[in-house]
Amino acid sequence: MSFNLLKANFLKHTSLTDDELNSINHYYEERQVDKGEYILRQGDICRFEGFVTKGCFEISTTDSQGNERILYFAAQDWWVMEIDSFISQTSSELDIKAIEPSRLLVITKTDKEKLYQEVPKAERLFRVMSQRAVVAWQRRLIRNHTMTAEERYFHFLKTYPEISQRITNKQIASYLGITQEFVSKIRKKNLSRGK
Questions:
Q1: On the CB side of 184, how many CA atoms lie within 13 Å of its CA?
Q2: Given this model, what pLDDT does residue 193 score?
Q3: Is residue 168 part of a domain?
Q4: 75-87 burial, b if ≥16 CB within 10 A, otherwise e?
Q5: Phi, psi for 103 (deg, rounded to 5)
Q6: Is 86:49 a contact under the CB 8 Å cutoff?
């Protein structure tokens, strides 16, 4: 089942033969993760790229005052890693934690390079996916500079309904860069309007 999700994800981006798909699967290893378990801590080196097959992760950083800032969430059919640390094999600036019991398929940097040699289409595939991720980050930055906090909140609910149902007001607030009290206020105001 997990490998079927991975295959379907790849096939959304490019055509691959059964032999190529089987070669790709060969390089991935399944990992179970408990709720609250970190798969990466700030300061460690990210030695994997992961594809989430079940559950949900939060990817965050903590500032010098101890304030956690959530950068994004990764649920089923999403990719998760600390790209700078993974590529350069230097200390991570991020934490990656399961917020519910989760499973993912992981590949090491060494195996990813071997995969590129064995299945040349894989390199193009990951380049396309990386470009889409950069576009998503850019759109988020634009929203953060052009939308009000309330507009960002409703955009998040509309865009990620499956994630918004699984996380707390505190996590939503951290992701949006607003206070938990403001999120509660928005929710309360909209409940009173019957929304």
A1: 5
A2: 67
A3: no
A4: beebbbbbeebbe
A5: -135, 145
A6: yes
Kindly report, residue by residue over 44-99, the tens digit of the pLDDT. Answer: 999 999 999 999 999 999 988 888 999 999 999 999 999 999 999 999 999 999 99
Q: Per the domain annotation, does 78 fall within a domain?
A: yes
Alpha helices in the chain (DSSP H): 2-11, 18-26, 83-88, 109-118, 120-146, 149-159, 161-164, 169-176, 180-192
Per the structure, the count of domains in the chain is 1
Q: Flag whether 34 is in a domain.
A: yes
Residue type, 58: E
CATH code: domain of residue 38: 2.60.120.10
Cα–Cα distance measured from residue 132 to residue 65, given in angstroms and rounded to the nearest whole number: 33
Structure tokens at 134: 């950069």
Place of tokens 């590129």: 116
Domain that holds residue 37: 2-109
CA–CA distance, 175 with 70 (Å, rounded to integer) = 5
Sorting pLDDT into bands at 50, 70 and 90, what band is 1? Answer: low
Q: How far apart are the first and last CA of the chain?
A: 37
Residue 104: how many CB atoms within 10 A of its CB? 29
| Residue 54 β-bridge partners | 103
Number of other CB atoms surrounding residue 184 within 10 Å: 14
For 33-46, the pLDDT digits (tens) are 999 999 999 999 99
Sequence length of the chain is: 195
